[in-house]
Structures are given as structure tokens and as C-alpha cells.
């Protein structure tokens, strides 16, 4: 899963990226210190794996992972090439979802590219550039489809939908605000529009605000905007995330408790990403390794098996399944079997989050 971190210059993108990936991207108090996208692979936190490793005395623990792309700060005019904008926009097209970092903190030592803090204005600047870039792409697609229509009347429906999308973009609205049928949604997704990608608004606040647990006026502004797009909002403090990144697991837990926080910003962000993209994890466990596998909600057992290896999907017979919570309560597989918690499921079974699965197959 690839996620792109975007925002205006100096809103805390690279600080957040550094913290969650420990990748050491350059972070400086001037625009465009990030030119090429920095890429960091992050293990998805999942305490269930640690419990299973101890239960099975596994040699290896393999979490699932997310790729974060730190994309350079966009500015007004990016779609026309301002601030190397076209180069940056091309990087965004490669990701599954966008994390839009919005500055929601006061700091006279950190300059704002527009001279003042204004979350709604900042969001609109970025969104407007994405919309303009999409509009240009749609224009080209419409022209191409109009030419096709002369010899192929079957593309009339496609052309009508493209024109609907163009109308929404011309009104200054993101494509994701559209109401579409399932077939229309599949087609619009295939266009790879920037303004159609799922988005999380990440409000970067001060240490005082994250500890208080209350939204400041800037965060409330972000939430109000996000509601217009049915988008999610995650509140983080980049500075605290940086401090957490330097700690080992034990010290990290103690540090969070000391601050009165239940989880880190990374944990919140990952959870929101999974929810936004309709993702879940199933688990496999044994003496050699315990591992998490990411799939979409609604995935049937054979397709889930295919995440491990195509041969397992092709030769799928059935799946031995137990819910992690049941296995954790009963402490071992023998007790789980005796309690009737281990089930045999066939090809139509829809895998659930936290299922511990062993696939039977024959190739």
C-alpha cells in the first residue's frame, strides 16, 4: 500500500515523515527542501503478532507494511508548473491514498508560505491544484473519446460520464464528491484522478494541544472542511512523533503514558488508512513465522490465500480458521479445537479481520 504525504511547504510533512519512517528525510525551514519524493516503508503496528509469536514460539515475526511517499510542498500554481509542481503532481498519481498535512499550530519561528495560518485556505490551495490538473487530463480524454464516438457509438456513455466529471471539476469540486454507481465508480477509478483518491486530513498541532486532547480552532476548521468530502481527520503532533521515533518499544509506551496518550500518531494514522481503504489483516502462525497479510474487506478465502502464493489460491481446498480473540482467550490451538472454535471454511468464506488461517491446498 502506497500513501502520499502532501501539503504546503513548512506544514510539517517531512517532520511527520521522518518520525513515522525514521528515514531521515531533509526537514528545513524553507520551501522545496524536498525535491524528489522520499520513500519510507513502515511496519504496521499489530500487537496480535507478538502474542502469536510467543504462543507458537515462532522464529520470525513479519508484520504487513505501508510505503509512505513524502512529496514536496505544493504551492499555488503547481498544476501549471509553479514550484516544480507538475513533477510533484506526477508522484501523487502513483499512490493509493493521500495524507494531506495541514498546519494547525502557531510558531513564529516557522514561516508560512502565505504569511498566515489558515487551514481552509491551505486545503483549498492544494485541492485546487489537484482539481486543475485533473481537469486538464479530463479535457484530453474527452477530446479522444469524441473522436472515437464517430466510429464507435458504444463509447457514448463513457463520454457522458467524462463530461459529468468535467462539470464537477469546473465547479472547483474534487471528483470524490461525486455520487456514482458501482460501474461508474470503477471507470472513474481507472482514470487515476488526483482529486478522486481517498484522502485523510492530518492536522499537525502543538504539543500542548495534543496533550489536552481538545481540538483548537484550526482543527475544528479542518474537520468542518473534511465533512464536505466525507473525509477522515487525524490529529497528530509532529514534534512528539519525532521524540517517539527515537525510543524503543518499552520507553515509547512509558513516554505515551506520561503524556496521557493512548496511542501514537502513527497508530492513529495507520488505523485511519485501513478504514479509509477498506483494508483488514488476516494472520498466519506457526513455528517458523507469524505474519500479517493485508486484504480488502469482503475478500473470499481463495483470494486471500492468493496473497500468500498464487499456487495456494489455484489449488485451494479449504481453510482452517479461528478468530484471534478466541485463540488468545484459550491460549493454544489444542484448547481451541476442544472448545470447537476452529472452523473449516470453503471457497465462499469471507475472511474477517484477525482471522488466524491455515490454508489447505493441492497443486
From TrEMBL:
**Function of this protein?**
ATPase that binds to both the 70S ribosome and the 50S ribosomal subunit in a nucleotide-independent manner.
By what name is this protein known? Ribosome-binding ATPase YchF
- Which UniProt keyword terms apply here? ATP-binding, Magnesium, Metal-binding, Nucleotide-binding
Show the Gene3D superfamilies listed in the entry.
Answer: 3.10.20.30, P-loop containing nucleotide triphosphate hydrolases (3.40.50.300), TGS-like domain (1.10.150.300)
Q: Could you read off the lineage of the organism from its UniProt record?
A: Bacteria, Bacillati, Bacillota, Clostridia, Eubacteriales
Identify the domain of life: Bacteria
Residues given in the record as ATP binding sites: 10-15
Q: Does the keyword Magnesium apply?
A: yes
Q: OBG-type G domain spans which residues?
A: 1-256
All copies of the TGS domain together span: 278-361
InterPro entries in the cross-refs? ATPase_YchF/OLA1, Beta-grasp_dom_sf, G_OBG, GTP-bd, P-loop_NTPase, TGS, TGS-like, TGS-like_dom_sf
Q: Which cofactor does it need?
A: Mg(2+)
Q: Which family does it belong to?
A: Belongs to the TRAFAC class OBG-HflX-like GTPase superfamily. OBG GTPase family. YchF/OLA1 subfamily.
